[in-house]
Write the structure tokens for this entry.
Amino acid sequence: MNDARTEILKAIGKVPGNPATIAAQAQRLRAGACRPDRVNGPADEVFIERLRSPGVAATAERVATMQDFPDAVRRYLAAHQLAPALALQPHPDLQALDWSGIATHEHIATDEPAAVGLALGGIAETGSLVFHSSSVSPTLFCFLPLHHIVAVRASQIWPWLEDYADAFAGCAQPRNVNLITGASGTTDIEGTLVRGAHGPGWLHAVLIGNA
Amino acid sequence: MSHTPDFNTRVAAALANPTLKVAIERTTGTARTKRAAAMAAWPEFPAARALGRDIKDHVIENLAHYLVEFEKNAVAAGTKVHWARSGEEACQIVVDICRKAKAKSVTRAKSMLGEEIGLPHALEAAGLERVETDLAEHIIQLAGDPPSHIVWPALHKTREQVAELFRAHHRDPGAMATVEAMVASARRQLREKFMAADVGISGANFLIADTGAVCTVTNEGNAELTTTPPRIHIVTAGIEKLVPSTAHAMAMLRLLVRSATGAELTQYTTFHNGPKRAEDRDGPDEFHVVLVDAGRTRMLNEGLAEMLRCIRCGACLNHCVVYRQIGGHAYGATYPGPMGSVLTPVLDGLEQAQDLPRACTLNGQCQEVCPVAIPLPTLLRGWREKSWQRGFEPATVRWALVLWRFMAMRPRLYEFAGNLGLRIMPLFSRGGWISRMPMAGGWTAHRDMPSPSGGTFLAQYRRRFKK
């Protein structure tokens, strides 16, 4: 392995430059004015608009407080004629809510019909939900259910992709960062878009509170 | 995949295939329309593209610095970083990891580098069960085909052909009446495979130097189901995939996704950083990244550094008039289309791949749509020049060019020959069109030629100049 490393670095054939100079050059290569004109209002409003746009095709609603979230979930399950049972992401803020009338479990099954999660935040530019893997946010909760219902706080919406990146620059990184932009899909057969490939077929976001 | 020399035979077979052109057009036509709509909504694209080019050039200029920085940060996160000079070395590293773990089954998320280095074959040769999880890769694994496009590997298959394959191979195929039903059948078929695999293998869209993370973009959700449940996750990545930071990756993602599918972002953009942490409830116990050279440092030193900008969006394929006629398999290589015709001579050798740089009209569409402004026609011309210098052109082509050069350097003789042609050609004309003429069979076999009128270019020029 070391031979390969040495040989590859040698084959590049250039002595690495001064790290401070390289960092300064990289800093000048930041997107600014050339970003598409997407964030032209309050971040939470743009975020919900992007979620509902045809490109993302998620559904979204707003509720006043976290305590209102279980009712939003109950309405969703009823509207989709789903049984009142779901996998609940093991986050204390979700576990603290009143889920009466719904059977919740912590383990996510391979063919889980519905799961409820709490995103770390959202990105307005693209309508993306942000998840960082942790003990309270297992990665598979975002990928195994057929219906994924996600709470996200309106105060946690970053306007641009770079704003999210900058918020965690220089910090310890989680094992997985998942930016989720709509339900899973595929265009692999004749370019026809079909929602619900291997990941969730439905994504519903519930924006909590105000920015 | 090795390049076989009978390019013309493969092209003839592709042109004679009754369904291929329809299949290609269904997907690439949609891709072109969606990309055009995305670009129309992004007037700042030229500036964004210049930025994308500059980010990649900056990384390539400082490649050793960023590789070492990536390695340092990845190792700090618990990643095991491996280096491979060649494709064979990379495959050996992957197979050794699997053997050490006593793995039996491997799930794979689509990676063009994996195809390039022959990883699917290496895994099977090592006796491992290989399960392709991307829908298109699943289709071509069942069909035993190589990929025909870098974004849509099964683009050469019509829905009817996919239905037939699934009926033959799926446990519970159902009615297969719609594309939705076919996708649902693949979901059922692969569900248990995801959870039962010992090793998950993926590629990388970007390697983030300042965090040591690996960024992948997908739409199906298969990548995360490939990389999360197994005990081991292995990434194979070309050394050119680096970007300085997550913020730089974001600028590149805007370009990549719009150019590939016309969407603003893929459904899933994931940054993998090391193995499962002590407190995590899921994730792999081991996380390996294999950094692969396989010709990239050679490109750096042989005038092809601009090609290392390529982010594998496939826009040049979708817009190429040649690719749209013959499809991916006719190229006989892992990477088809304009980007493939530049890369394949590096990977397979120019002598074997000499036909590819010539299979181009040089109309410049590929360069126009490239999100990192790679001068593809110039690079293709560079290969043609090298091919000429090394004497790879057939004798007839070489002699024809020598003759043309001789004439072109003697204007009077050139004009005389031109005038002679103008007198002879109308003899073969029927109603103003020539459908058969000696020495022009290559042209007239597929289309008619208009009978010349109005004199030679020089004669016309002189007439107008006098006015």
About this structure: Residues 395-466 of chain B form one domain. The longest helix of chain B spans residues 20-40. Chain B has a mean pLDDT of 94.
